[in-house]
Amino acid sequence: MKSTPLVIALIFTTSVFTSACNDNSSSAASPPSSAPVTSGTAIKNVILLIGDGMGPQQIGLLEEYARRAPNSIYGTNETGISKLAAKGTIGFSRNGPHGSLVVDSACSASQLATGKPSGSEMIGLDKNGNTVKTILEYAKDMGKSTGLVSDTRATHATPASFAAHQTHRSKENEIADEMLNSTEVDIILSGGIRHWIPQEVNTDASIKAAVEAQTGNAVYIKSKRTDSRNLLTEATNKGYTLAYDRNSMNAANSDKILGLFAYSGMNNGIINSAEKDSSARTQPTLKEMTEKAINTLEKDNDGFFLMVEGGQIDWAGHNNDTGTMLHEMIKFDNMVDYVYNWAKDRDDTLVVLTADHETGSFGFSYTRKDLPAAQILTGDAFVASGDQYKPNFNFGPLETLDKIYAQKKDFSGIMDEAGGAVAATGTSMMNAVNNNSEFKIDMNAALEIIATEANNFQVAGHKYLDAPIFPKVDDFEEFYVYGEEIHLDLIGRKLAADQTVVWGTGTHTSPPVSVIATGPATVTAPFGKLLHHVDVGSLMIEAMTGQPLS
To answer: Which position among 30, 82, 93, 105 bears the catalytic label?
Structure first.
């Protein structure tokens, strides 16, 4: 284990959580901005790295694995996040939305993008629903190049909030149109081709064949649009080079690139890990997309703004999937390490690493299960007393970290192997989990994973809560909201005791998240305190423009 301290992983008391979620005004008020205003020479490049769902405890999971797992793939190397933290200024940021306690990704990203308070599930709007200029749009107005990279969908909440203005995050078709035709982001690399292709691909074989030919059959073709527009063709007409796999992305030699590499989200971290050295891999990794974006954007003498999101940390948290979450953190960290090395010797670039929120209320915790056996220690106090070393509780053996990393599929893949939530049996569920995890379940646990009950919170017409039958959750059921996907959380809860892990929710939590800023000290110093995302957004805009945000 390395001795370099990392001050990010703090344990917050209940009082800190409470004070961080409330201000001195009424409960409906927006968070106040207390950050000092930067002034002076504007910074040339701003790179914002967002780990979606990455609270301090997710960073702690990565660092514990990297530093202390007996067979850590990091060996004696530091994580990219640790390197960035050692070089940069470290602070924390509250993230609550206007008028509420817990934030979603759209509101959080909108606050980072605009430096203004926003409401839940809004895209690029202020608390009153007004269109607000984003940092990406400021960059465009200054003649800088712009880029958005995500391993989710290009139109998903986080990237959307920097390049679109919509009343709700679900308007992904409209967001795609804005990104392409209004904001005209220079580099877009992500998944989610379903919002860029005409609806007729679902019903007309000839149109589907034409789009498949257009994409070189690299991506599964099915549309979520409700019109006949082909935004891929529109992008070509606007001068974009299009990419649909790793090879075409690498070959793109243009200052405008639209890369859409998946129907929806891109490959998860476990698949990335298994295929990272394979020449047959078709999808680029988050690191590779970021490298392509920076190599393209840095050609602009005016500078650039780039936002990179590791979005599936959040997805793993929603599923209470510790193994996949570790792999997602490693995927994100590989990208951070690249950005750190690119920027470390530059004095013209601000790099900010943060999260939009924490997901899952994750943590390691000691238990009364599998108490450790007594040991003989040779320290003088034990020799003199004749005592054996025998803690009262199971505090979690370090070998657990290697077992978590060894998971072979994410929980969605495990559920598919079991036959799907509807068709799975106790036997197929038990076998699917045990085939893919070092932590084993029995038949009783398998049956509890697939069990259902009446939905006590049914809301007719609701996207998620309309179903009369829901997966059966024994505690905190109000906090598990995503229908059939809750069966995935139930896998995580059945594995949790052996992983010495606790999960508190299938949704988001409200603790302050880490902020790490590197660049000139005069620019990064204001990030080194307890801020709000409104402040973080303001500071980035002020650093780039050299002017206070009005």
So the answer is: 105
